[in-house]
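The instructor's notes for this session suggest beginning with a concrete chain rather than abstract definitions. Hand out the sequence below and ask the class to guess, before any prediction is shown, which regions might be ordered.
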Amino acid sequence: MATGTEPQSYSSAQKVLHWLITLLVLMMAPIGFYMVERGEKTNFDALTNTLYTNHKTFGFLFLMLVALRIVIRSRRGVPAPVSTLSPFERLASEAVHKGLYALMVLVPLLGWAGVSAFPARGILFGLSLPPIMPVNASLAKFLLQLHGYAAVAMLVLIAAHFAGAMMHRFIKKDGVMRRMMPGA
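After discussion, reveal the predicted structure:
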């Protein structure tokens, strides 16, 4: 954090990025699982290829938004934990947030590495992602399998994050959730 003091709330940019990234996850996760299942059943028909192309494109956008979020977070900082948090809640909150940030970087990087090794780097508008791994079919299969497992782990942490937010909103009513709400 550049200022040396903790902000009282999240910035508008932090809130916008939080909710954009949330929307991308809510869109990409079910499409990701569906496209893999569909690909196995249809041997990659045109719709399946379109789903994969969109997933890769939005996955790259996701990674860029997460990188921007990390830069803003490191420069601006985050509000201090509210005083109503128990020591366990502070530990759990910190662990979930650190895990989410790690997985928000790891999941798209594993996907990118996997499609680089496949190779299937094409995204929307006739563009291609630059390769970050050598072409290797068995490596591609392994990386994309890890990508799927990491995505499931991220969804588990998102569920824990959501449960914590709901606890603060409806049980503790301590204003924690309000700090990330637009307009608050």
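Then share the key points. The helical segments are 12-42, 46-76, 87-117, 137-172. The chain has a mean pLDDT of 94.
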